[in-house]
Amino acid sequence: MRNLPPGARSVSLLLLGFLLATAASAEEVPRGAEIRIARAAGPIVVDGSLADEGWKGAVPVDTWFEVQPGDNLPPKVASIGYLAYDDRYFYAGFAFSDPEPASIRAPYSDRDDISSSNDYGGIVLDTRNDGRTAILFLATPRGIQYDAVQDDATGTESASPDFYWDSAGRITADGWVLEIRVPFSSLRYSDDDVQTWGIMLFRNYPREFRYQLFSMKLPRGGSCFVCRENVLTGLEGLPGGDHLVVAPYLAAKQESASEGGAGTGLADGPTELTGGLDAKWIPNPDNAVDLTVNPDFSQVESDVAKISANERFALFYPEKRPFFLEGSELLSTPIQAVYTRAVTSPRWGLRATGKNDSTAYTVLLADDRGGGSVILPGPEGSSFADQDFSSRVAVARVRHDLGASFASFLVTDREVDGGGFNRVFGPDFQWRPNVADTVTGQLLFSLTENPDRPELAPEWDGRTLSGSGLDVWWSHTTRTFDSGLEVKAFGDGFRADVGFVPQVGFREVYGEVGYTWRPTGFLTRVRAFAFTDPMWDNDGDSIRNLLAAGVGMDGRWNSFARFEVYADRWRVAGCGAASGSTLEIPKTQLRFILQANPSLLVSELSLEGALGEEIDFDNARPGHGGTLTLGGTVRPTDHLALRLDTSRRWIDVRPDGGGAEGRLFTAQVERLKATYTFSARSYLRLIGQYERTDADPALYCSPVDPLSGSFSGSVLFAYKLNWQSVLFLGYGDDRALQDDGGLARTGRQLFLKLSYAFQS
Asked: How far is 366 from 351, CA to CA, in rounded Å?
C-alpha cells in the first residue's frame, strides 16, 4: 500500500482492521420454512387450469408475506401455490385472488418485456442449494414469460440468459391462475438421488403501491436475497442428463449503400446467405457444453441510444448474445475483466460450464474475426482503436464455495494474428462473516504486447506493458443504517482487452453512508445518504475529488425519487495554446431521478437530469449546462405499446479570450418504439431513432463539425415458438443529417432469419 496516497492508505488500514476484527466464523443466515414437494398424481396440461389430475394431492403453499412495502406483514390478497414433478418436468401452479379482477394489469408483450407495473408471479429456483444463485421463472396472466439469473455475489439480476420452459395464465372471476412447467434439462443440479433445493414463491401485485409477496420472510437489511429462500425437499430420482439441443439457422441479408456519400443514391449489394448453428450438450445435470459455428450475432434491436458527446470514458452496453449466457454469473467479477462484447465476430466458439460439489467453473474459447473497437484506457479518459485483425480468445474461471463465501481465480488471453497478446490472471473472493457484512475483492495482473499496427493507434508499436489492478470493497447493511467502502488501484500498464476497463493509472477510494426511514402514507421509504469519491494518479496528484449528499424515496404509484447535490472537481488536460498544462475545474450540480408507474395506460415514466456547472473536457474549460432524459410508455390497448425516450445535453462556455457565454454544443437523441403484440409468440415492432449535435466550431480547440446527426428506422416482424426457434423479418433505413437540416439516405437493409431448436 506504499504507493497509495495518504488518505487511501488510511482507508486501506481501516479496512484491514475490520477484516481482522471480524475474522470469526461466518454467521448462518436463517432460511425460510421447509416446503415438501411430491410427484404428480397424474398428468398435468399447462393451460391455465388447476383441475388436472396431477394437481390433486399437491400440498398448498398458503403462507405468504408482504415484504414490500410492508415489513413481512400478512398480505392484502390471498395467494396459494402448488408444486409437483414427474420424470421430465418441475411444475408450479398458482391461484391468485383479486378483489377487483378488472384492475389486473396484464398487457401483451414480448418475452422478458415485463415491468414492475404488471401483475405477474412464479418461482425462484436455487437448484444447487447454495443460497447464492437462483433462476427466476415468472409469468403474467397472459402467459408472457420473464426469466433471469439472480446472483447474490454481485447483487444483480440479469435477464439476458434464456431457458426452455412453458407457462399459461388465465384471468378468472375472482383473480387469475398461473401454471409453469420447467424441463429438468433446463436446470443444473447435483447427481444425488435425493435432492434438496432452495425455492421462493413470488407474486407482484401493483395497485396504489407495488406490493411484493413471498412465501418466506425477507427481513430488512442484510447482504443477500437468495439466502433467505425456503428449503425444498421431496425430490427423488431426477433424470441424469445426456440432453442435446441443436439450433441451426439460415439468414439472408441484402444491403444497399450510397456510393458517393449521403444523398448520392443507393447501390444494391448482393444478397448474402449465411448459416450456422448453436448447440448445447448436457452430459449430466451439473455440466453443459456449448458450441457455436459461424454464429449469427446480429442485433435484432438496436442498443438504447446514449449521448457520447463530452464523455471521457467508453460507454458500456449489455451482452445479449445467447452463446455467452450459460452461467453468465461466472463471468462477472469485481473488475470487469470479461466483457464478451469484446469478442466481436467469432468464426466459432466452444464453452464448458458446470459445478461439481462446491467448485464451479467455466472455460470459453473463440476464434474472433475482429472488427469493432478496442478500448485504449488512461487515467483521465479512454479512446478507441479499430480492431482490424483476427485473434483467438480464451477465458477461464474457477470458483470454490466456502459456505456463504467463495474464493475464485480468473484467466483471460487474447492472441493477435500477426503478433501481440494480452494475458490477465488473478484471484478474487467474497467473504460474508455475518448477515450484515460483505467483503469482496479482486487482484489481477496483466501482461501485454501491443500489435505492431501504429496506423491504427500510436501506442500500438509492438511495445510491451505490464501492470496490476485491485478492487476491494466492504458493505454493511442493517434495517436502518448502511455503509460501504471501496478501494481501487490500477497500474499504468494494466490492460484487459477481453474486458471493459476504460480507466487505468489511478488510485480511488469510495465511501458512502445512508440512513433509512419507513413512514406510512404516500411515502413508504426515505433514505438520506452522503458519499465521497476522491481519485489520484499514480504520482499522488489529484484527478478528481467528489462529495455528494442527497435523499431517495419510494412512494405511491410505484414511484421513486432521488435528489442529490453533487460537488466534484476534475483535473483536465489543457488544449490549444495551453496544451500540456493541467487545470482543476469544479463541477457542482443538482442531480435527480423521478420514476412512476401510475397505471396500465401510462407507465414507466421517468425523468433524470443534472443541472448546474459543467466541464468542457474537450477544451479544458468550466461551463454551465445540463443533461435531461425523459422516458415513458403509453398502452392504448393491451396489444399496443408506445415507448418514447428522449435525451438532451448542452454546455455553455466563455470563449478563451473572454466575453459572454456561448453554446458549445447541444446534443439530443429521440427514440420512439411502437410494438403491436399479437400473442405471446408474435409481434410487429417499429423503431425510429434520431440523433443530432449542434456545435460552435469557434469555441473548440480542434476542428469540429457544426452539425452532425443521423436517423435510423427499422420494422421487424417476429414469431417465436421459443427463444431459439424464431422467425425474424426486418427492414432498416439509415440517413445522415445534412447541413441544411435534411436527411439523406445512406443505406438500407433487408433481413430474414429462420432458426429452429431440435431437442433430444
From this structure: 9
How many C-beta neighbours within 10 Å does residue 264 have? 12
Instruction: Name the least confident of 22-31, 64-73, 153-162, 440-449.
Output: 22-31
Q: For residue 495, what pLDDT is reported?
A: 95
Partnered with residue 267 across adjacent β-strands are 257
Cell of residue 455, nine digits = 496506423
Q: Which amino acid is at 256?
A: S
Q: How far apart are CA 658 and CA 73, in angstroms?
A: 63
At 380 the three-state DSSP class reads coil
pLDDT of residue 12: 45
Cα 214 to Cα 88, 174, 177: the distances in Å are 27, 20, 17
Burial of residue 254, with CB atoms counted within 10 A of its CB: 0-12 exposed, 13-18 middle, 19 or more buried: middle
Q: What is the CATH number of the domain that holds 62?
A: 2.60.40.1190
Number of structural domains the chain divides into = 1
- Is the model's pLDDT at 251 over the cut of 60? yes
> Residue 29: is its pLDDT beyond 90?
no
Looking from the CA of 470 toward its CB, the CA atoms found within 13 Å total: 15
Average predicted confidence (pLDDT) for the chain? 89
Judge whether 319 lies within some domain.
no
Alpha-carbon distance 246 to 724, whole Å?
10
Asked if the peptide bond before residue 74 counts as cis, ω within 30 degrees of 0, the response is no
Q: Which of 563, 562, 565, 583 is nearest to 573 (CA)?
A: 583
Angle, CA 585 vertex, CA 552 and CA 494 arms, to 5°:
85
pLDDT at 575: 75
Under the banding of pLDDT at 50, 70 and 90, the label for residue 261 is: low
Q: Is residue 621 part of a domain?
A: no
Q: Determine the residue type at 206.
A: P
Per-residue three-class SS string for 239-303: CCCCEEEEEEEEEEEEEEEECCCCCCCEEEEEEEEEEEEEEEEEEECCEEEEEEECCCCCCCCCC
The number of CA neighbours under 13 Å toward the Cβ of 545 is 10
Range of the domain at 223: 31-236
In a domain, 128, yes or no: yes
Provide the pLDDT confidence category of residue 356 given band limits of 50, 70 and 90. confident
Segment 688-736, tens digit of pLDDT: 999 999 999 999 988 999 999 999 999 999 999 988 899 999 999 999 9
Whole-number pLDDT of residue 27 = 57
- H or E element: which one contains 7? helix 6-21
Q: What is the pLDDT of residues 438-481, one digit of tens each?
A: 999 999 999 999 999 999 989 999 999 999 999 999 999 999 99
Counting runs of H as helices and runs of E as strands, what totals does the chain give? 1, 43
Q: What is the rounded distance in angstroms from the CA atom of residue 732 to the CA atom of residue 716?
A: 9
Task: Look at phi and psi of residue 699 and say left if phi exceeds 0, alpha if psi is from -120 to 50, else beta.
Answer: alpha
Give the separation between CA 354 and CA 479, rounded to whole angstroms: 36
Which amino acid appears at position 545 of this protein?
N
Contacts of 414 (CB under 8 A, 6+ apart): 391, 392, 393, 421, 422, 423, 497, 498
The 3-class secondary structure across 398-432, one letter per residue, is EEEEECCEEEEEEEEEEEECCCCEEEEEEEEEEEC
**Domain annotation covers residue 266:** no
Cα angle 705-711-716, degrees, rounded to a multiple of 5: 155
